[in-house]
Automatic annotation (TrEMBL):
This is Type I-E CRISPR-associated protein Cse2/CasB. NCBIfam families: casB_cse2. Signal peptide: none annotated. It comes from Bifidobacterium platyrrhinorum. The lineage of its organism: Bacteria, Bacillati, Actinomycetota, Actinomycetes, Bifidobacteriales. InterPro entries: CRISPR-assoc_prot_Cse2 (IPR013382), Cse2_sf (IPR038287).
Length: 210
């Protein structure tokens, strides 16, 4: 079992999750209403996020299909599995009933990557009146375990779904990496530092308005 955060694992995990998400997104947002398999997969992933215990046999193909050899097994690094599973489930919640993709595409990333902190800023760009968003971000940082982190991140994803025109996108590659890193005490502070910097800076809101 891995006891220390690995940047190599985080990088490979982010690319794997992004690939899985964009496969689902491309199928779900097709002009013909999406494929039945993509709709079913998103429904399974949302249902598992709601449950008290994972239904592994239900979501196994959605999660483990094409699991790369560069990533450790669940026994070697359970934090990687938890991060991948959670990122996919949060995406499924975010995408629900949206006909346009909510996962940020590579062509829109680069310097304007919609990290979790920047996406949270867009829920209410007027930070003086965004106390609810700030409280939830503080609750993520104060959560005593990973389940608490997930509950509070989920509440922010729900706000992204309903804010304004509901078109806030998110870089899920970045989020998957953060969800992995946040599980290691020696590395979690770096995640919250980035989220705070991205939330407090207005760079994301400027790029959205331009």
């Amino acid at each position: 079992m891995r006891r220390f955060f690995s940047r190599d694992v985080a990088k490979d995990l982010g690319y794997f999750v992004n690939g899985r998400i964009f496969k689902l997104q491309n199928e779900y947002t097709r002009r013909d209403g999406g494929t039945p398999s993509s709709r079913a997969a998103l429904a399974r992933l949302r249902r598992d996020l709601d449950g008290g215990a994972p239904v592994w046999m239900s979501i196994g193909a959605d999660l483990f299909e094409d699991w790369p050899q560069t990533l450790p097994s669940a026994e070697e690094d359970p934090a990687a599995l938890r991060a991948a599973k959670t990122a996919l489930e949060l995406y499924a919640l975010h995408q629900q009933s949206r006909r346009s993709g909510v996962a940020q595409g590579a062509e829109d990333a680069g310097k304007n990557r919609m990290t979790f902190g920047r996406a949270c800023r867009l829920i209410n760009p007027d930070t003086e009146h965004a106390n609810g968003v700030k409280r939830r971000l503080q609750a993520v940082e104060a959560a005593p375990d990973f389940n608490g982190v997930v509950r509070n991140v989920r509440s922010l994803i729900m706000l992204m779904r309903t804010a304004g025109d509901g078109a806030i996108t998110l870089d899920y590659r970045s989020l998957a990496q953060d969800l992995y890193q946040i599980q290691f005490p020696e590395a979690r502070g770096e995640v919250f530092m980035r989220w705070s910097m991205d939330y407090s800076s207005d760079a994301g809101t400027r790029s959205r308005r331009s």
